[in-house]
Design goal:
- It is a single chain.
- This protein is of the alpha+beta class.
- The protein is 24% helix and 33% strand.
- It has 4 helices and 9 strands, in the order ββααββαββββαβ.
- A hairpin with a 2-residue loop joins strand 3 (92-103) and strand 4.
- The longest helix has 17 residues, at 73-89.
- The protein is globular, with a radius of gyration of 19 Å.
Amino acid sequence: MTVPDGGLRAGGADDDESDADWPDGRDCGDWRASILATDDWTELDLDPATRHRSIRKSVRDAVRRKTVRQPDAVRVIRHLEQLAKRAHDDGAFYCASLVVANDPARSSLVSNVTMQLVPCDLGGELAFRTPPDMCGWLSQCFSDEYGEYGDSRADIVTLPRVGPAVRHEVLAGGVLLQFFVPLPVLRPTAFVLLTFTCPCPPFAALTTKLFDVMAASLQLHCD
């Protein structure tokens, strides 16, 4: 799936920027986001009224494609429903999972991704002037307290289609990888939180590379 850039600037966090480098957020309406994912990812229906039927159909299709073993179908359905419910309750607007039959004995839920819009408006003198300002503040919010749960690091990176973001990685057996992406406008008051997880240690290194590629495809555009 590809979407036009819509005129949004994709600049670096270290650029010498002025306010004129960013469109005025007051001119934007509803925001939409998209990322690229391969066909073996299953997008989960988050609507409580329809998600059970939708997820059950997706797993049946996966069984036919032999990416899920028939004996595991009920377990996978229950697990995906739990993920969808958690994503909905957390305010996510997108959730997808990658389920792979990695050996003849069992199916593994290899990874999951969610996207949600998080308000972040400090107001007054603390209001963020540009997305790099927000990234600088977000990067300072992470501390060594995460070390008790595993190795953790946070860096400011540039995503090609949206600009600066904070990349936060936690390694604790599996991997948690998050991208905090300010809305690419002047005076941003929210960011898109892109969260990838892989609970399977044998897949952690490989899926981290995949997550970085998927994050690089993120596009944000307003109506």
